[in-house]
Amino acid sequence: MATKLPKVPVVVVGMGWAGGIVASELTKAGIQVVGLERGKDRNTSDYAMGHDELRYQHREELMQDLSKETITHRNNEKMRALPMRDYGTFIVGDGVGGAGSHWNGQTYRFLPYDFEIKTLTDKKYGANKLKPEYTIQDWGMTYDEIEPYYDTFEKMAGISGETVELYGKRSNPYPTGPMLKTPIMNMFEKATKNLGYTPYIIPSGNLSESYENPDGISRAACQYCAYCENFGCEYGAKADPAVTVIPVAKKTGNLELRTHSNVIEILNDGSKASGVIYVDTITGEEFEQPADVVVVASYVFNNARLLLNSGLGKPYNSADGTGVIGKNYCYQVSSASSMMFFEDKEFNLYGGAGALGIEIPEFVGDNFDHSEVNFIHGAGIRVTQYGNRPIANNVVPKGTPSWGAEFKDQSIKYANSFFPVKSQGASMPYRYNYLDLDPTYKDAYGKPLLRMTFDYTEQDRELVKYMSKVTHKIAEEIGADIIDTNEEQGDFNVNKDTNTHNTGGVIMGADPETSALNSYLQMWDAENVFVVGASAFPHNSSFNPTGTLGALSYRAAEGIQKYIKEGGSLV
């Protein structure tokens, strides 16, 4: 029997970017918030001298414990889904800050095209551009409507960048200037300009200069130490909920942060929630936390799973395309890269930052004509310099034996003489790619695991074929001696694929029949439940999702305040 606690105005499930932003905005407005986080509390002191590659990157110090909670995966409905036992493609954060503590910091905006993708695609190419199995839909809001929230997020996080004309209009420039250019970035810039493209420095949550945000949070500039992804930043230079929004919420005195508190159920009567049940992960005790408003702000998988395990919203059914919870799960398509090796050039590849890089915008969204290709949207083509930490990097040309004397010789020869031209492609929703509850496997608390049914589609494979020609052309212009280009997209492998961006499953839109949430991320089926995060994206663009997640979180926080004052549906 769960111990029932006193009722609170708002309970927030998960204290990463989404939960941290919501908690900060509500507490600044004088609203009492209980924040529940299944992991431990963290701040910059926890990362002091934390350049331990084995501990953080390979033993996943900051990640969810897969022995207690994981997902199962199958490529299609004919396969048996099996649990993911090792972190390969996904790195699900755990603890205060969540994935916002271990992310790389790349902070793009999505395109105006993204938010009206169905309308604009049909208008330009006709309704039959994609097969009916691709369930693209508009987001229920436009770029112009979300732009002010992007601006708010960028000012809070101190995003470093430069304006790009081929993207949407901006109300303000980035609050800090772009990061430094390295020799490999200069090589990409020169080559792409020679080819007629317009390269720009990737917008970064790693500060290019010292900065104080509108909430009075001061942070130091990036040291280019190379320990970003999978690591917390000991300098506070990387935008992180644990050093930005959460301290602001704590300072108000209106946030009660409870760590080691794993929410396993949302209590509801089918149309309204009354609170949550959570487990103290240290003692095993169960608690009921009643609340007027429940904000589900965990990771993509956990948001969908918690709703499904709580019976909130109609589960998606791939057989007839009805239902919404679990619908439009999307990933990202990143196989069309060209690895370059140089015989007479060496680079300092061990310095870098998680968002240090340069990109061209000509092949994203609908910035190029899709009339003669069998896909929509596109990919960002880029060179990045994250910093090659010693244990994880050992790159050799194709055809090199995977062990033995030749492998060792080639490893040494090219240790500082390679880098890739990468692509990161958009992921379109597909009727048979979705999330539901696994009928066999359960977690440590007896709750069904989330099952992912996903594989790359014809759309994805055509995109890779096209973009591989672009990356190869740039690599040739750069002048590499050896170019190894991936020209084909293989089947999805949950233990090996290298992108980490998951979206969808609890999507937003203008129609309750085809979406779970309105534009404030308020559930159509339960007016006092807001589901905040990248789970709201109806598809995934070619850009990293955090900037859009942050903007939607500010929009949701505004909606929650409005709901507390007025009640009812906000649309």
Automatic annotation (TrEMBL):
InterPro entries: FAD/NAD-bd_sf, GMC_OxRdtase_N, GMC_OxRtase_C. Residues 221-331 form the Glucose-methanol-choline oxidoreductase N-terminal domain. Residues 429-552 form the Glucose-methanol-choline oxidoreductase C-terminal domain. The keyword ATP-binding does not apply. Keywords: FAD, Flavoprotein, Oxidoreductase. GO terms for molecular function: flavin adenine dinucleotide binding; oxidoreductase activity, acting on CH-OH group of donors. The keyword Oxidoreductase applies. It holds the Pfam family GMC_oxred_N. It comes from the Bacteria. PANTHER family: LONG-CHAIN-ALCOHOL OXIDASE (PTHR46056). Belongs to the GMC oxidoreductase family. This is GMC family oxidoreductase. It comes from Planococcus glaciei. The lineage of its organism: Bacteria, Bacillati, Bacillota, Bacilli, Bacillales.
